[in-house]
Specification:
The chain has 474 residues and is mainly α. It has one domain (2-460). The chain contains 16 helices and seven strands. It has a three-stranded antiparallel beta sheet, with no helix packed on it. Strands 1-7 form a two-stranded antiparallel ribbon. A two-stranded antiparallel ribbon has the order 5-6. Strand 2 (171-174) and strand 3 (177-183) form a beta hairpin. Helix 2 packs antiparallel against helix 3 (81-100), helix 8 (232-248) packs parallel to helix 10 and helix 9 (251-269) packs antiparallel against helix 15. Residues 1-12 have low confidence and may be disordered.
Amino acid sequence: MSVVTNTTTIGAIELPSRRNTELLLLGFAVLIPMFAYANVGLAINGSLPPGMVLYGLGLGALAGIAHLVVRRYAKYADPLLLPLATLLNGLGLVLIWRLDQSERLQNLAKRAFGGFSPSAPRQMMYTAVAIALFAAVLLVLKDHRVLQRFTYISMAGALVLLILPVIPGLGADVFGAKIWISVGGFSIQPGEFAKIVIAIFFAGYLMVKRDALALASRRFMGLYLPRGRDLGPILMIWAMSLLVLVFENDLGTSLLFFGMFVIMLYVATERTSWIVIGLLMSVGGAVVVGTFASHVQARVNAWLDPFACYTTSGACEQVGQSIMSFGSGGVLGAGWGQGNSDLIGFAANSDFIFSTVGEELGLAGVMAFLLLYGLIIERGVRTALAARDPFGKLFAIGLSGAFALQIFVVAGGVMGLIPLTGMTMPFLASGGSSVLANWILIAILIRISDTARRPAPAPAPSPDSEMTQVVRPS
């Protein structure tokens, strides 16, 4: 006698979460900045810096907290995004601390402000707050698709953030650019957060309107031109970017704002004509504004020939010093703590901190940093490709495109490839707004990648499932 039982063979396939890989990479992301910190101390003072252990423990603790949050709330997220951001942030802290040790910058601050306040401890505090925001985003944002509900609210929010710096009594004019607001003794750069908020609007809007924008009415010189009424959105965004450039004298934010929209528009419609139209409109707008805005015109003149106005223009002096920093670095650089990029002045640890990399680490160091940034962009694009919903695809590509554009305009500006924009290098430069906004950006990409990589749930058993017979002796 035998007993026949029915069992199903359908079950969930457990994919590897790669969290242990992330933890191993985080170990390297903490050890490499500690090694760099030791190198700076040995080069400047001939001994290990006294705060090296405390710095390593602090950075390690922050990285560990971020890892635990990802392990718990985004189990299947991309394993490279967090280590790459941690490594760049840690090396940025080392570069800022290295510039804090410059006697030239200390004396300059004492003459200008009556005292010197080091930037590295403040940047470490901003990093801790940024990690807290990173964790909060992953805790609160369970599904990125929820943000699609706030498409038009996000547009209004982005406009408010862009308008705040030009409000009298609230905005602050720093070296000719009105991109800051001062609240309670703290300075905030709203444009850093606006790039994330406006990406929500672009993703939600293009997801609904992409079919209409992809339609072509006529072919001209090999390009499919869109219908006249479909040019309205891009004209509106173009006009808004020009207004930012005119009223805030902020070339970087306007390029980032308009460029991100064109990238997302191309991805949504697959029409090359949008890229060409966007480039023509951005160049035309920059030429018109550059003709009338003295601040933008000064930066263009500094780009064309910085040594022609070296002694009469601060922009020319900064660009000239930056170019000489890259030139003196050579292939391998002068070594940690042995450069003279502090000659650039106060901008050495913000706009021009990449010049310190070029002088002290040389071409090899510059390429290494650009490779790290490129990996973040590549993982963001991979996340967009893996996303299962159109909103997530457009949102991830928008954030990755904005990050890539910011790297390009900052690195190109300090190297003399394009006019200086005044934006800060993500994770490296001193500034709370930049580090806060970019950690939020990384958190959103991690959330989208977790949703994209998470395995589908196993189907419920049913009588129609594949059956197997197990025969047991009675």
